Amino acid sequence: MAIPLDVFLAVRFLREGRTQTALIIVGASFGVGVIIFLSALISGLQESLVRQTLGTQAHVVVRVPDAYARSLHPVVRGEVIVAHVERPAQRTRSIESWQTRVREIERMDGVEAVSPTVSGAALASRGTASRSVTLFGVEASRFDSLYAIERHTIVGRFAPSGSDAVIGAELASDLGVSVGDRLRIQAYEGRASTFRVAGVFDLGNRDVNRRWIVVSMRSAQSLLDLAGGVSNLDVRVHEVFAAESTARQIESRTGLAAESWMETNGQLLIALRSQSASSQMIQFFVVVAVALGIASVLVVSVVQRRKQIGILRAMGAKRGAIQRVFLVQGAIVGLAGSAFGSGLGAGLAIFFGGLVRRADGEPLFPMELTPSLFVYTAALATLVGVLAAIAPSRRASGLDPAEAIRGE
Amino acid sequence: MNDHVQDDRTIGPVLALDGVTKEFVDGQVVSKVLRGITLALEPAELVALIGRSGSGKSTLLNIIGLLDAPTRGTVRIGGVDTTHLDDAGRTTLRNRTLGFVFQSHHLITALTAEENVRVPLAIARGWMSEKDKPRARALLEAVGLGAKVDAPIRTLSGGEQQRVAVARALVNEPRLVLADEPTGNLDTEAADQVFALFRRAHRERSMTFLIVTHDRGLAARCDRIVEIVDGALVSGERTDHAESRG
Ligand SMILES: Nc1ncnc2c1ncn2[C@@H]1O[C@H](COP(=O)(O)OP(=O)(O)OP(=O)(O)O)[C@@H](O)[C@H]1O
Ligand SMILES: [Mg+2]
């Protein structure tokens, strides 16, 4: 059996410096553990926050661009146009040839599903009780692939067709209706009609449960006076944080206005970003502390072995070989640290994740432990180990062998 | 590189020093330790280097071993002028051609006796190989350490450590062995063992030895004695062994 000399010496040097080696490996393990735990916590929290927010929101909403933003005159340079642009009445306008648009957007990279929707404000009433609501006219299966209403239907079925409507749970109790009961829907700028409640859903969002009424596309079109048209295309993307770029892409390809959830939820996004930034800052300091620990222990190891390094050089070991002995030590410490630290971090994450639960049974600290997190952290720890070993390894390889051997 | 260095064992001197001078400058004080040393070692010579303490023996050995550069003069090893070699060139030459035994042995304490002996072979190859074990063992047995092959360095006595260093210097059969008081820490018996090993390597492998010693008796058993006096070499003292040499 043969082992590369640099690896052989690195292992033996580490083994010889027992306590020091153990200490830096423990240090590196804590570092890795903290990074894994913190990352799992932050991404878990963010994931659940985003999931809650986006559960009842399209990732990208595509509409007809606002008319008032366009000037009727082409702008000629140097010409001053004094124009009072009259804002047209807030009447919902239909997306032209939306069927083509749906297919076009569906084919775009990163897009998971598209749901054409006719939506508008309305008043729902039964007897003396009435509530203002948001009316959605949809193609049931497409709408469902965005909001998973079928799965969240608690009574009846998710079947918005003909004169059947599906409504939110809070609305049902506000109006005192249940499956089979009738209610009247009056569009603010249109007609009125009577629907039968086919199902009641609970999407876990109070506002949604209180306001949403889902009917067939045709019913909504006639109520909102938008025959054959749709007011918006709701888009779901694969990667939620790519929604913004997808929105821009949709705008440039279709000329329609597209708004991503990130624009709609500016505050949330800022919160997420600053959370990530502070987590990264903590990780950075942990990395620096671990790197300094590894470097200082290796420097001591170089000083202690000055003469032995000198003799290795005298026997013909090249500078690079001496350097590698210490770089490999850094790598080994990093790897060992990531092995123990992964266990530690995962243990902590699982422990805290199971510790406190919210009223709805979801963990208070949702943890996201992914294989890529472990791979990333192991690579980071090994890299940090090697980088931390650079200064000590230079010091070792720069030793003058005669000097190192002479000084008693 | 320099394959001819390996091949021309019998052609020309193994070592040729020409006007080697060494001055140490410490602030204003310049101390001239070596003043124009000229010396040639023929293949398969066993030469003793003697001199008072502080006369510059170790300094000269460091210069020959390419660990230190002379202030003036040239060092040729196996016909190669080392003056303009870069660090990598000197390093390669050291590993291929030279063996060292230092005044203090500097063994690698993280390794066993036998592993220490294998290190020069590993340096040459880049790999620490189990195949070299028998050779390392045989050398340790030859210096009377057969029982301490797997002993950690810390558990060995000073004399034992010195003998490990001797075995290490011989393992890759260098053409020229530079030994700085190799028997300084040893009792008579152990010193005899080490010297016998030198003799055998010298006879069987035609290796050349330059041995620094304070031991007149040991010096007398070499082929030739050179002495440093006031930084210059008083050379040529041939011993009886020179004639009886095979
Ligand atoms: N790096 C250095 N800087 C300054 N002076 C040095 C240096 N190395 C050696 N000397 C001086 O050179 C002189 C010769 O030293 P050297 O070690 O060669 O003597 P030596 O003959 O080996 O002595 P010993 O028999 O005691 O080992 C000494 O006076 C020493 O102080
Ligand atoms: Mg000396």
Q: How far do the termini of chain B sit from each other?
A: 32 Å
**Biggest interchain interface, per-side counts:** A-B, 29 and 36 residues
Name of the CATH homologous superfamily of chain B: P-loop containing nucleotide triphosphate hydrolases
Helix content of chain A: 40-55%
Q: Based on Cα principal axes, name the global outline of chain A.
A: elongated
Question: What are the defining features of this structure?
Answer:
heterodimer, A: 408 residues, alpha+beta, 2 domains, six-stranded mixed β-barrel, 11 strands, 54% helix, 18% strand, elongated, B: 246 residues, alpha/beta, Rossmann fold, six-stranded mixed beta sheet, four-stranded antiparallel beta sheet, disordered C terminus, binds adenosine-5'-triphosphate, binds magnesium ion
Spell out the blueprint of helices and strands.
The complex is a heterodimer of chains A (408) and B (246).
Chain A: E1 2-4, H1 5-16, H2 18-54, E2 60-63, H3 98-106, E3 111-126, E4 129-138, H4 140-147, E5 153-156, E6 164-168, H5 169-175, E7 182-187, E8 192-201, H6 206-211, E9 212-216, H7 217-223, E10 232-237, H8 243-254, E11 257-260, H9 261-264, H10 266-304, H11 306-314, H12 319-355, H13 371-388, H14 390-397, H15 401-406
Parallel strand pairs in A: 4-9, 6-8
Antiparallel strand pairs in A: 2-10, 2-11, 3-4, 3-7, 3-10, 5-8, 6-9, 7-8
Helix pairs in contact in A: 1-12, 2-10, 2-12, 2-13, 10-12, 10-13, 10-14, 12-13, 12-14
Chain B: H1 3-7, E1 15-26, E2 29-41, E3 46-51, H2 57-64, E4 72-77, E5 80-81, H3 87-97, E6 98-101, H4 113-125, E7 127-129, H5 133-142, H6 158-170, E8 176-180, H7 188-205, E9 208-212, H8 216-220, E10 224-229, E11 232-238, H9 241-244
Parallel strand pairs in B: 3-9, 3-10, 6-8, 8-9
Antiparallel strand pairs in B: 1-2, 1-4, 4-5, 10-11
Bound molecules: adenosine-5'-triphosphate and magnesium ion (MG).
Magnesium ion is lined by residues 57-58, 103, 180 of chain B.
